[in-house]
């Protein structure tokens, strides 16, 4: 089921989300609905507060590019995480452009860690640990910020309004 995405200034986007205490069938169904919503928008990540639920859950779908242009395209990797947290990060940072489904029509330049390690639980309650770098690390940082009531515009050094004629931009 496609869920409605809330946009600023909805107050749920500024609240620190509650930790999920129990993972059950309802949780798994909600996470699947988040995946469908993310794909429908289209985006590469979505946090529960973006669909009006102040709980610590995110979904991320990422296709890793290949150095070899002749290599077959890899299938996207889907992450459904409950209570995710960044437990390590690189010293190095990198600037990049970000957009957000909850802030339509804009991009911003944001400095993020180049690599992060994320721990959390999968949709079955099993512990997971993900080492991410580059674009995937940026997506995780963006989505986990949502769980703390932080939006990318809070971290942006520059903002850009998107023009209707511009190409489709991947939105986090």
Describe the 3D structure.
With 172 residues, the protein is α+β, with helices and mostly antiparallel strands. The chain has a single domain (11-65, 76-161), classed as Peptide deformylase (Peptide Deformylase, Alpha-Beta Complex), CATH 3.90.45.10. The protein contains three helices and eight strands, in the order αβββββββααβ. The strands form two sheets. It has a five-stranded antiparallel sheet with strand order 1-2-3-6-7. A three-stranded antiparallel sheet has the order 4-5-8. β4 (93-98) and β5 form a beta hairpin.
Give the helix level as a range of percent.
Answer: 10-25%
> What's the CATH architecture name?
Alpha-Beta Complex
Number of domains as seen in the coordinates: 1
> Main beta sheet, described?
5 strands, antiparallel
Q: Enumerate the strands of the largest sheet in spatial order, edge to edge or round the barrel.
A: 1-2-3-6-7
Topology:
Blueprint: H1 25-40, E1 45-47, E2 57-62, E3 77-89, E4 93-98, E5 106-113, E6 115-121, E7 127-133, H2 134-147, H3 152-155, E8 156-161
Antiparallel strand pairs: 1-2, 2-3, 3-6, 4-5, 5-8, 6-7
Descriptive key words:
globular, three-stranded antiparallel β-sheet, 172 residues, Peptide Deformylase, 3 helices, five-stranded antiparallel β-sheet, alpha+beta, 33% strand
